Amino acid sequence: MKRAGVIGWPVSHSLSPRLHAFWLREYGIHGAYLPLPVLREDFSIALRGLRAAGFAGVNVTLPHKEAAFALGDSSDDDSSAAGAANLLLFRDGRIEARNTDVEGLAANLAAEMDTAALQGSSAVVLGAGGAARAAALVCARLGAADVHVLNRTRQRADRLVAALAPVALAQLNAGSLDDWPALASATHLLINATSAGLRGTSSPDVALDALPQDAVICDLVYDPLETPLLARARARGLSCVDGLGMLIHQAQPAFEAFFGVRPVVTEAVRRHLEEALRDAG
What we know:
This protein is an alpha/beta fold and 281 residues long. 40% of the residues lie in helices and 21% in strands.
């Protein structure tokens, strides 16, 4: 049996086990994909244990993405650019770090919005963790001229921008949430790359009144599917992109790496996950 899993803290909310189990059944693969709750301080020890237990690898979620990249013996271009990894593969006694968040978010945005409209415009990313790094890279690759990274702690945003500036194809700017009012009127794409809004918590408190009517709001949180931020955006008639599509698209290359088959992203798998969210609610 091929084994893999998702490692994080907490990890009970993750839909990844349901997603991978759906594909395992669909493709008739003898495998297992497990939730692996691991504290920050136990992360490296847990990886050693999983390698010894014969796991093919793990997906990585909060708060371990930057540590996952640091522990990789090798890395792909996207994880090197982001300084964060959401996929670790155990091969020949080595750890290979990858970042499929970049590919997954780009694919989801391309499916849900007119990405050509982002060319030469401004994007704002909320947060400064591993997901925010991926989001900033995607905004730049999709043609945004300016990408503003705003975080409660300005110093973390400064570090993110400094790390990505050599590889980003856009002008990157760091700031705090206090800078949002001055940026809103020129923002075409706003991405919440924090965990705020997860499972009933408050979403980032950013006013949406000044946004252009053609602006797009993307929330990487998928539990609940409609976060408070997206609810406020829909009430204003703004286009919204939830986080479930990104989850599915980023899992596609991970599943292939674990189990040897590249799954097809279909409406059936999305409906399966939507049902799981409704049941959990």
